[in-house]
Structures are given as structure tokens and as C-alpha cells.
């Protein structure tokens, strides 16, 4: 089983301002943008080193660090050792536009997003 950190997710108050900061000040490039069904917006900002920052502007969430996003090759297999070690996901596995995902809290309460990206997503963005 392979798990790798893919991005850090932040909820932002002003998406355009945040995109300008990561692009113009830190030198990230814009990956792609998605409008969510609930009125939110997501922009992926890629670093030169491969990891990305996922910026989400959505008034349904408080501003700040939301989670560390990981790419797993098999979500069901990734969940097994967590359960065996006494950790439970914070909700069910859900289908998204990029694959399947769930969340788990680390021992410090940091939210870790486990995502099994679809082949279509991987072929296009990874």
C-alpha cells in the first residue's frame, strides 16, 4: 500500500487574493479550478516540488487549515491498519468528482484526508 502527501487544504476568505499570493509571491502555478455544488470554489496551486495547496473558498467552513490530503492507491487497504491500530474514520467513504475519500484524525487531532483518486483524475492531473 502506498500513501503519499499530495496537498494541504486551506479554507480561505478570498480565493482571488489567496491565488495571487501563492502564484505571484510564492511562485506556485495554478493547477485547476472547480466550482462546487454548494456554491464554493476550489483552486489547486502546484509547487515546484510536486506537492500542492488546495484553496477552498466556502462560507460553510471556518477559515484556516482544514486537512492534509494524501493519495492512497487503495482506500480500503489504507483504512485497515488504521482500524487495527484503534483509529476510526470520521465519516463514511464518499465518492467525489476525483475518486473516493474519507478522513481520519491523527493522535493530535489533525484531519488527514485519504483519497483514492480515479484513473481519469490521475491521467489528467498527476
Q: What distinguishing features does this structure have?
A:
2,3-Dihydroxybiphenyl 1,2-Dioxygenase, domain 1; 3 helices; globular; 126 residues; 8 strands; alpha+beta
Could you please describe the fold and organization of this structure?
It is a single chain. The protein is an alpha+beta fold. The protein has a single domain (3-125), classed as 2,3-Dihydroxybiphenyl 1,2-Dioxygenase, domain 1 (Roll). The chain contains three helices and eight strands. An eight-stranded mixed beta sheet has the order 2-3-4-1-5-8-7-6. A hairpin with a 5-residue loop joins β7 (99-105) and β8. The mean pLDDT is 92.
Topology:
Layout lengths: L2 E9 L3 H11 L3 E7 L5 E6 L5 E6 L6 E9 L2 H10 L9 E3 L2 E7 L5 E7 L1 H7 L1
Parallel strand pairs: 1-4, 5-8
Antiparallel strand pairs: 1-5, 2-3, 3-4, 6-7, 7-8
Give a brief description.
The protein has 126 residues and is of the alpha+beta class. It has helices spanning 15-25, 75-84, 119-125; strands at residues 3-11, 29-35, 41-46, 52-57, 64-72, 94-96, 99-105, 111-117.
Gap between N and C termini, in Å?
18 Å
Given as residue ranges, the uncertain stretches (5+ residues, pLDDT < 50) are none
CATH level-3 fold name: 2,3-Dihydroxybiphenyl 1,2-Dioxygenase, domain 1
Strand order of the largest sheet: 2-3-4-1-5-8-7-6
CATH class: Alpha Beta
- Number of E-state strands: 8
Give the overall shape. globular
The quaternary structure here is single chain
The percent range for helix content is 10-25%
User: What's the total helix number?
Assistant: 3
H-E string: EHEEEEHEEEH
Radius of gyration: 15 Å
- The total domain count is 1
- Secondary-structure-based class equals alpha+beta
The overall pLDDT average reads: 92
**Major sheet summary line:** 8 strands, mixed
What is the CATH superfamily? 2,3-Dihydroxybiphenyl 1,2-Dioxygenase, domain 1
